Amino acid sequence: MDPYEPNIDPILIQGASFIGQAMMNRLIGEGKTGITTNSVYDSWTPARAYQHYHGAVRILSEAASVQYASPIKQNFSDLRPGLGYDPRTVSWKFPALWRGGEWHLRDIVDYELTAAMGALEHMAYYRERWLRNFYTVQKRAISWNGAPYAFVVPPDQRDSVTAVEMLNILRFGEVEVEQAEAAFTADGVEYPKGSYVVRVAQPFGAFAKTMMEKQVYPDLREYPGGPPQRPYDVTAHTLPMQMGVKVITVNQPFQASLTKVEKIAAASGAVEAGPVTAGPAKAYLLEHDSNASIKALNRLMKDKAEVYWAAKPFSAKNKLYSAGTMIVHGGAGIETKLQAIARELSVNFIAVNDRLNVQAYKLIPPRIGLYKSHVASMDEGWTRLIFENYEFSFTNILDKDIRAGGLRSKYDVIIIPGELSETQIIEGHRNGTVPPEFAGGIGEAGVQNLRDFVNEGGTLVTMDKATEFAAKQFALPVKNALEGVKPQDFYVPGSLLKIVLDTENPIAYGMPRETAAFVEQNAAFDVTGNAKAVGNYPLTNPLMSGWILGESKIFGKTAVVDVPVGRGRIILLSIRPQFRAQVRGTYKLLFNSVYYGPATLTTYE
User: Fold this and answer.
1) Which fold is adopted by the domain 270-362?
2) What are the tens digits of pLDDT across the range 201-260?
3) Which residues are bridge partners to 184 per DSSP?
């Protein structure tokens, strides 16, 4: 159903309808009822519609569940509207009502088999037309002569490792990537040798274009002036914004000496030689800009290295270093370890013998507990994945572990991931709906144990909906400015919004002052008292890609909050800082939070 992403060739959009109607025709012809087409799923995000950007048609069919394999009984009067259809009303895309009754696993198999045979019969009958259309789609792709002409990824990146990762994602999607063998000029701007170029006129240029450009999602309503029509999935997928990579759109054709590349590798890192000729340097500096610096930190922590974060900007070797720069204390054998880390992770350490005399946070290996509710949270799985990828040591903690208490003796940091409401965290599954060992949440006892954990010096990091749990249960000096606001007055269904960061707060170390954050109907806080605003929405429309309604509701509101509580602290990340393990540009907000909590402020001489 609408909308479909504008980079998809119209032939493919119509093709999905063409084959879907054939499948439905065979189902209806066999007397099967309760079937809809052109409903539920849109064709907006390439996360699902990958085929549409690669010269093929994507179709998806689903049947009503029987909840594993037991027959269910469904009354007609209990059926409710879905996205784009009403099961109790006849329409052109829902022509035969299912009147209720029993529904079996056998029914699912029969319906799906008929649908599959309808698709195969259709493809066989119209095979020449399908082949001709596929040829036309690919011919149009390689003949593209509009704007933009190309995207340029220059080598001077804030996080060059992530930039290379982005290019390899495009290569994985079969996008052709070229590298400049010499400097060139495009749209009046000179780019250096080594710049990467992605031209749109190529077989899968539509995929490159949709991943690299800003999305403008249409303002769709249930009825004129009514609430927004909910998208099936998110509305923004702009890869450079998500990953914090600088990409320039070039509209006019240009000449350059370019060579196609296959797998792209980041330049090997190194330890810049210090001014000493024997023994290690006094210290080694690593700037905080790259996500790879966090992986390097995790390896150093496992090696029991002495590591600090500078709390203020400082100068060394005639260069100004920003707050958050990593200071690795020198010692026997440390340079050999740093050389290995530098080579493997493409980071650069600077050896110094200067007396730094800078305020700094002494870091320790944090004992991390990642909350895993029995109410399944995909966000917990994505968090676990990125922690594994970035080599964090952590333990999953369950409801029973939080109810048992004694948390501070086991953990320095507890993380409550997103997608879990206050009710789900506290109450969990109702008794009788799951086996007894999976029923219930953390309960009031667990809430009190979390309060004790923070008051005793622990750090609680909450994300997405869980920030509202923390705000209310800990009576924090914050208030969600969007509480009770109706969707027609404010709506942001998975978009990239600008936030402005206090980069001298440890939570935002290594971040640019302004960045794109993934937001999906998240809280926006007013902060008072001792709560510190670390990331705010600007006083103008924050939309960078996707869709937002009622943007003025969040002007100047806070998305990232640091709240000291007792001897510990609570960090509210009310954005989605690690959404689906995609948004590399805001990973550091989570990573920094983990190390910041248990760190000790001192002076590094």
Assistant:
1) Alpha-Beta Plaits (3.30.70)
2) 999 999 999 999 999 999 999 888 889 999 989 999 999 999 999 999 999 999 999 999
3) 191
Tell me how long the chain is: 605
pLDDT-derived band at 513, boundaries 50, 70, 90:
very high
The whole-angstrom separation of Cα 260 and Cα 85 is 47
Asked if 511 contacts 481 with a C-beta cutoff of 8 angstroms, the reply is: no
* Pairing state between β 270-272 and 348-352: parallel
CA-CA distances (angstroms) from residue 280 to 329, 360, 458, 520? 10, 21, 35, 49
Q: Is residue 389 within a helix (H) or strand (E), and if so which, with residue range?
A: helix 378-389
Report the 3 state secondary structure along 312-348: CCEEECCEEECCCCEEEECCCCHHHHHHHHHHHHCCE
* CATH fold of 368-604: Rossmann fold (3.40.50)
User: Lowest-pLDDT range, 90-94, 271-275, 554-558?
Assistant: 271-275
The pLDDT confidence band at residue 277, using thresholds 50, 70 and 90, is very low
Closest CA to 452 of 475, 474, 476, 419: 474
Tokens of 377: 């949270």
The total of other beta-carbon atoms located within 10 Å of residue 259's CB is: 9
Per the CB < 8 A criterion, the answer to whether 393 and 368 are in contact is yes
Laid out side by side, the sheet with 270-272 consists of: 270-272, 348-352, 283-286, 326-329, 307-310, 358-362, 600-604
pLDDT for 278 = 56
For position 143, what pLDDT does the model report? Answer: 97
What is this structure's pTM?
Answer: 0.94
**Residues of each domain in the chain carrying CATH 3.30.70:** 270-362
> What integer is the mean pLDDT of 315-335?
94
Given the DSSP bridges, would you call strands 283-286 and 348-352 parallel, antiparallel or unpaired?
A: antiparallel
Where in the chain are all domains bearing CATH 3.40.50.880? 368-604
- 111 touches 23 (CB < 8 A): no
